[in-house]
Amino acid sequence: MALIVQKFGGTSMGSIERIRDFVAKRILEEKEKGNRVVVVVSAMAGETDRLINLVKSITQEPNERDMDFVVSTGEQVSAGLLSITLNHMGYPAVALSGWQAGIKTDKAFTKARILEIDTSRILKHLEEGKIVIITGFQGITEEGEITTLGRGGSDTSAVALAAALKADRCDIYTDVDGVYTADPRIVPEARRIPVLSYEEMLELASLGAKVLQIRSVEFAMKYKVPLRVRSTFTGDEGTLIKEEDETMERVVVRGIAHNKNEARITVVKVPDKPGIAAKLFDALAEANIPVDMIVQNVSVDGFTDISFTVDKNDAGKAEKITKEIAKEIGAKEVIRDDRIAKVSVVGLGMRSHAGVAGKVFETLAKYGINIIMISTSEIKISCIIDEKFTELAVRVLHEAFGLDKEESERVKQL
Amino acid sequence: MALIVQKFGGTSMGSIERIRDFVAKRILEEKEKGNRVVVVVSAMAGETDRLINLVKSITQEPNERDMDFVVSTGEQVSAGLLSITLNHMGYPAVALSGWQAGIKTDKAFTKARILEIDTSRILKHLEEGKIVIITGFQGITEEGEITTLGRGGSDTSAVALAAALKADRCDIYTDVDGVYTADPRIVPEARRIPVLSYEEMLELASLGAKVLQIRSVEFAMKYKVPLRVRSTFTGDEGTLIKEEDETMERVVVRGIAHNKNEARITVVKVPDKPGIAAKLFDALAEANIPVDMIVQNVSVDGFTDISFTVDKNDAGKAEKITKEIAKEIGAKEVIRDDRIAKVSVVGLGMRSHAGVAGKVFETLAKYGINIIMISTSEIKISCIIDEKFTELAVRVLHEAFGLDKEESERVKQL
To answer: pTM, whole model, 2 decimals?
Structure first.
């Protein structure tokens, strides 16, 4: 008898009808296989925003402790409604809030981290044969204060519960039916990827962001919890995300990700002295601005250029800080470019296959797409290009690596 | 330094603006007097109904445990919003849910009773100088399940907290400014009653029902908690409800209550044998139908008539049961009359003043109002009359007992 953790997001829990016709159905499918089921739910779509807006109409800077006290009620309502539905259908169920489920967190209100889970109450209800429904996104501190885990935290709740309960699988139900080789709105030929490694999923963040919170993938990787991303509405198999194995490696490239939410900042003619880069990036870290790619050119006549990318939301702040540092260190000027995009080719297989980078550059060049910055890791190659070429770049790379074909065919090709 | 418990209802908590402009103001008025303040809040007006409707759209007979799990969130939101408002205004405050506030109840979901309150967490926050805001209407069982106290339960929460904390006073803030000598919509000359005994308040239920839950008055009486009913919006002194003292007794009649929500059922020609009445009223009690007034006529030729009143909502069920019993005991017939009203004259002083009953009957007779049933206690006289005379009866009794005059004047008159 397997133990399955299922997580349903806000869209799935969006109405009484959806809860009854889809969510309950997915739960009972597992139940009928003889499995024990623990369900983690988000608030009904729109509810968390409604609560945040109520709070923000008082002040833009609310007391975070009280903020969590208010916002955590959204999941309590949806969990209760689901339990009422299942009980009404004749299936014993019980709804537990974060504190009732024993989810202990630190005190970082609005972005708390799970410290441990006391699973005794959950196990007791499972032994009684009940479907256990747990509010996602929240927990309780040692002092008995309600905390929330931050946006998308319900995925993390589900994975943490799956790890603590040693669940056989954690199914993340959402409104898309898996992770694709590229965004299907851009590449109609994009295919659902049947199996992915955690590392690939993390690199495919921009494809997966809508379906899976990155933090929850890191958590799943750490505790080796197999994750399945699947659709609440179709019930298809979706995409399984797990530890890599030999069969996975046979596919060189798994998918093409893209991200238009970054901006590039370039410091021109920086005196090439030790400690200059450190000064700049320390200042950005101090201001809590995460930096993605960093490129420094070869020094010419004792001067160099430093380029880096940050999230567009942070670009204004980053530009200001960079200008201050640039003045201090005697750089010539600071240029900010918001009209860039990052296109990434991701796959475990490229570790052992030469020529992937060459193929990327060659393909982009063939279509006249200039590469502004390059960054590589063992399992991905990312290129910063002019924003206007984003969709074209994704399409031509998707085709160049044969991602429109079945994985089995692609393996034969190489 | 006094300790004051304040309770604000759903209308007072109805919007962010009301919370800021009125509720916070009332709290800070007490705070500025140097008092310690514990605040009990209801859900925002309409919110509990919204949650109940969500649940009822799943099933008319929801699992009560889950029902409470869902419905209790309304107060958590309003308590959090008030705390955020006060903190934003610069006054340290903290919101506590029923379980955080240590409110232990029995397991009677949807109508739980408070068993005890562990005040340690409340006292800790008060010592830190904080305004402590507590969700009304709810508590927690020994097993860690969330319960609610039933409609209007926030008044009970407030009084129970005042008793447990040995508060100097419990102020029930609402949208009316006190208890009146009669319903001011019927008697424009009605006056606010400055001081009432608990017993009088209980008898004046129909005047007080809109402002105060009866269960909370019983609770206050039991634990001798002085209650003040006052308006959130005007901040006036309102009506103080406390133990009777000598000054109170000098006023003979305190107010005129009326109730149109009862129906009368009469069993005609009942064989006058021992145990017949018991049989009938046991059956009604069995069906959980509370009976208000009971009148049995003097027996004529071995037969008698029994009349009683019940809430109109229970009248159909009561009629059916009575008809079955009537058949069994060989009574002639059962008559139901929904078009009746109960008018009551209430006052501690009538215990020691003869002639109040006479004045009631004389006044009603003078205006041609026939009395159908009479019931008296030490501090009230209730008459069942034809519903169409209700307003007239209230007005002429109000005038007859001089309730349109100041209490001090009335004392002189007698």
So the answer is: 0.84
